[in-house]
Amino acid sequence: MPITAPPAETAWLLHHILGFDALDQADTEAVLVEATRLAEGVIAPLDAPGDRVGAQWHDGEVTVPPGFAEAHRAFADGGWIGVAASADHGGQGLPHVIAYAAHEAFTSASMAFSLCPMLTCDAVLLLEAHGTPGQRTRFIPKLLAGDWTGTMCLTEPQSGSDLSGIRTRAVPDGAGYRITGTKIYISYGEHRMTKNILHLVLARLPDAAPGSAGISLFAVPKLLDDGSQNGVRCQSIERKMGIHASPTCVMTFEGAVGELIGPPHKGLASMFAMMNGARIGVAMQGVALAERAFRRAAAYAADRVQGGAAIDRHPDVRRNLWTMRALALGGRLLTLYAALAEEPRASLLIPVAKAWSTDAGEEAASLGVQVHGGAGFVEDTGAAQHLRDVRITRIYEGTNGIQALTLLRRGLIRDQGTAVASLLAEIADDPTAPKSLTQAGSAASDAAASLRQAGRREAEAGATPFLGLLGTVVAGWLCAKVAAREDAPPAARTAATVFLEQILPRVRSLAHMAASPSAGLIDDQPIA
Fold it and tell me: How far apart are CA 328 and CA 491, in angstroms?
C-alpha cells in the first residue's frame, strides 16, 4: 500500500503550478522518488512498532525503539540532512523547497522518527545564518554527517509560549559561558542514536534586560571536545497522546559549558531562523499525516464490503475520502508556496501555512478514523495513530492561535494590511480564477478591513477564523490553477475540484466569524 504522495505529482505541482524552476522537473521528481523509496522501504516499517514500544527513560538515559538508530544512519548516509545545506560544509546545496517536499514523504512514513532529522536540518539552517565561521566549520559537518543531532531548547516550566519569562541563566566563564536552568518539551533532547547532541538554548546573560529583548542564544553540546559529559541531563520524558517513539524530554542544564551564537541579547531574533524553518516543517507534517491517513483509509475502503459493494462506492464515504485528498493537496500547495515565497510574503504566509495545514491534517486524520468506522476507533488498523500523532502539530512551534495573532499583528496591523491586500489583489487579477474564488477573495478583503477597524479584543477574537479564511482562499487559488489544467495529474485535478466545491464554501462562515465574534469571546466574565 503506498503511504506517500506520488512523487511525480508533487514535482508537477512545483513546476507547473508554483513556478519552481531552479531544477529540471525530471531532477525534482528523481529526488522525491529516492525520498519515497527510503520512506516506504526503511522508515515506514518502524512506525507502528515504534508507537507501541515508545521511547524509554531510565536514570537519565533514553532508549528509542529498535531500528531507529539504523534508520537514522541510512537517512544521514543518503545525504538527506544536508539536502538544502551549503556545499561549503558538505551539503547538497539544493533549494530548501526540495528539502520540505522530501520531508513530507519521511513524515508520512513516521512522524515520530522524522522529527529528529527535521530539527537537525533546522539547526543547520540557524548556524548557517547566525553562526561564526568557526562555529559553522565545527558544528555543521558533524550534523550533516549524522554524527550529531540538534535540538531547540526554548520552553520552560513557568514560561510556555511567552518566552519573555525565560529564567535560564548564562554566566561568562573564560572564553565561554555556564548555562543553568530547565527546559521542557525538548524533542530528542536525549538518545543514543548518535555520538553527540547539540542543544540550541535560549538563556539570559547577567546584564540582560527583562523581557524578550534580554534573551541570548547558546550552543551547548551534550559531550565536550574531550568526550566528557557536559552539565546536561535528561530529567524525564513525557507520557504523551501521540508520537510515542519520539522522546519529549525535560532537560536540566547544571552549569553546562556553552558558547554564544549571534549577538548578545539578540537570541530570539537569531532563533527565528530555526523557528521559521520548523514552522514550515510542521505545516508539512500536517500535510504528510493527511496524506498518510487518506492512503490508509482509501485502501481500507476499497476492500471493505458493505451493502453489497466496497464502501468506497458509497457517496458519503467518497465524500470523506475526497475531502481528505483535497485537504492534503491544499495544504501541500499552500506550504510549498510559503516555502518558495520571498519577503514580505513569506512572513505573511508562514503562520498561515503552519496553522491551516495542521488544522487540515487533524481534520483528515479524523475523517480517516470515520472511514474505518469501528475499526478506526481501535488501534489495530493504525488509523487512530495518525490522529494521535497529528494532534501535536496544532500545538508545538507556536499554537495555531498564536499563529493567528501573528497574522493579525504583522499582516494586518503593523503594515496596515498591505501584504494581505497585495496577495488578495493578485488572486483577484488571476484570469483563471473561477467566480467562487473571486467571491471568496472579496469576503477575505472585507473581513480584513473589519479586523483592522475593530477594537483589540474584537480583532483578537476574529483572528483564528480570519487565518482559516485566508488559508482557504490561498489554497483554493492554487487548487483552481490545478483544476484549470487539462494536463494535471487526474487525481490531483479531481481533488482540486473537490476543494473548490466542498471546502472553499467554508469561507462565508469563516468571514462572518471573523467580523462578528460572539460577545462571550470579548468580555471578561468568568467561564463556568
Answer: 12
